[in-house]
Structure formats: structure tokens, C-alpha cells
Write a structure and sequence with these properties.
By secondary structure, the protein is mainly α. It is built from 14 helices and no strands. The mean pLDDT is about 90.
């Protein structure tokens, strides 16, 4: 049994990579990979694009190769760690939700203790990566680790865990600026705020998939908080995000390729809102996944704008 939202393509890749292992080890390895969402790489990509936005903007061109490698590996390590601690926190909630009932802890294939060990090991690996940067980045990394650990538990106490997720997902932005330039300028914090807005947008779309199940299970989310006003509020958040990214372009003195990418991003947002107008679960999940292309489009705009500067 696998989670309902696993990517078929990603699962095929995992099965191919594991096929030479003995059956028992293969099964255990697959469970750990699913625990860390290697069967669903979309989340890592949504974390990767803002990190690359920051690296390119901080460097004003192609970033130093060392920083690019460290932060790219760190993105996947921290996302995997966040997924392990998330499933640990949701171990009693996931079995009650159709989409998550097949996750390894919920299905009893991985124990909560094993999930904590995986979380700790990935956190240690990410910290080792940060040690190859500078003192400011190392200091900032402690706040990032705290946000990653706290986020999964916030859905018990607040209807806005998506805001904490945005901060956790976006903390790589000030860290990237610190690693490249040994400071976090106003542009870095502006981009960080913009990323929180974007995270709330796409994670609200994601939460709309599980809204009915979450209400029954007692979980909280912005999708539940917004209720019937979810689409108008998403529209306001989208407008605010685009405005923030407009300010990013102005402060970063970016040229026409960036502005063209923002126009494309606005078009993708409009398409997402149109597709989820009926609040169909599959459409909401599609809209969430579509944000991967939006993040990539903005990154391409930044890269091209810096190249023609």
C-alpha cells in the first residue's frame, strides 16, 4: 500500500533504484524513502525554487558553485527531515484522512521512534553542510531547524500553520543571502515575506483537498479558516504576492525577462483559480502542483534578467 498522493513516476524511479536490493531490505528502504516523501518530489521543488531565487539575487549572477551545491543538497535534506517529523506529529491524525492513511507511520510500516531517528540524522547532515559556509549562516540555521521542527505541531493550535510552513520553507532565503554576501539585505527579507505569501497560497490549495477530513479529525488549516471565502482570499493573497515580487524586481534592478515571468506567473495563478472554482479535490491538488512551474518560471526570469543586465 502506498499513499494516495504518491507520484507514479517517482515511485517507478524509486523501484528501479531499489530493484537490486534483497526483498526485505528493498521494502524497508522504500518505506523510509516514502516517509521522507521521495515518492512526491513536488514539495522539495517548491522549496528549491525560492532558494535559487535568493542565491541568484544575492550573487547578482550565477552563484558560487560551493553555495549552490550546499543549498541544493540542504533543500532536499531539510524537506525530507520536515516530512519525517510531520508524519511523527500526525501519526494519530493521518489514519483518519483518506489521502494520508497509506503513509508509513499511519500504516504501521515505520515506527514513530524510527521517524525521529531519520529526522535527527537528516538534520545532522544538513547542519554539516552549513558548517562549510560562514558564521552568520550557521547562526541562522538554528532558527531554520526550529521552524522545521515546530511547524507540524502548529496545526493543533492555530488555523494558520501555512504561515509557519512559509517561514520554514523560506528560511533558506536569508541563509542564502548570508552565505553569498555575509549579510541579509532588505531585498532578502522582502523575498522571504513574498515566499511566505506564496507558501500560504499553495498550501491552502493543498489543504482544500483534505478540508472535510481535517474538520472531522480536528486538524486546523487556512482552508478551514477561510471557509466559503477561500477563493476571494486566495485572490487577495495572489495579488499581494505579485506586488511583493514587483518590489523585489524594482529593488533588484531586474530587467524585462523578470517582468515577463511575473506576467506569466499571474497567468498561471489565474488558471489555478479557474480550475479550483468548483473546489474539486483533484483540481485543488492540480493547482498545488502547478506552483512548481510557477516557481521555475520566476527563477528563469531572474536568471535571464541578471544575464542581460
Amino acid at each position: 500500500m502506498r499513499p494516495a498522493d504518491s507520484s507514479t513516476r517517482a515511485m517507478r524511479v524509486l523501484d528501479f533504484l531499489l530493484q537490486k536490493l534483497p526483498p526485505r531490505i528493498q521494502e524497508r528502504a522504500r518505506d523510509y524513502l516514502v516517509l521522507t516523501r521521495m515518492d512526491r518530489p513536488i514539495g522539495a521543488l517548491l522549496l528549491l525554487w525560492p532558494t535559487w531565487w535568493a542565491l541568484w539575487l544575492a550573487a547578482g549572477d550565477f552563484p558560487p558553485l560551493k553555495a549552490l551545491v550546499i543549498f541544493t543538497l540542504g533543500v532536499f535534506a531539510m524537506r525530507a527531515a520536515g516530512c519525517a517529523i510531520n508524519d511523527y506529529a500526525d501519526r494519530k491524525l493521518d489514519p483518519q484522512v483518506e489521502r494520508t492513511a497509506g503513509r508509513p507511520i499511519a500504516a504501521g510500516r515505520v515506527t514513530p521512534r524510527e521517524a525521529l531517528i531519520v529526522f535527527g540524522a537528516l538534520l545532522a547532515f544538513a547542519f554539516i553542510l552549513v558548517l562549510f559556509t560562514n558564521a552568520l549562516t550557521i547562526k541562522l540555521s538554528f532558527a531554520g531547524a526550529a521552524l522545521a521542527a515546530i511547524y507540524p505541531f502548529t496545526k493543533r493550535y492555530t488555523y494558520m500553520p501555512q504561515v509557519v510552513l512559509g517561514a520554514a520553507f523560506g528560511w533558506s532565503i536569508p541563509m542564502a543571502f548570508a552565505a553569498v554576501s555575509n549579510t541579509v539585505p532588505p531585498l532578502g527579507w522582502l523575498l522571504f515575506i513574498a515566499n511566505i505569501l506564496w507558501s500560504v497560497i499553495y498550501d491552502t490549495q493543498y489543504a482544500m483537498v483534505d478540508r472535510d477530513d481535517d474538520i472531522q479529525a480536528g486538524a486546523k488549516s487556512t482552508a478551514i479558516l477561510f471557509g466559503d471565502a477561500d477563493l476571494p482570499i486566495l485572490g487577495i493573497l495572489i495579488g499581494t504576492f505579485l506586488l511583493a515580487m514587483l518590489f523585489v524586481g524594482q529593488r533588484g534592478a531586474l530587467g524585462w525577462p523578470y517582468w515577463l515571468s511575473l506576467v506569466g506567473a499571474a497567468g498561471l495563478f489565474g488558471w489555478q483559480l479557474w480550475r479550483i472554482r468548483e473546489r474539486n479535490r483533484d483540481a485543488c491538488l492540480w493547482a498545488f502542483r502547478n506552483n512548481n512551474w510557477l516557481g521555475m518560471l520566476i527563477w528563469v526570469g531572474i536568471v535571464l534578467a541578471l544575464a542581460v543586465k
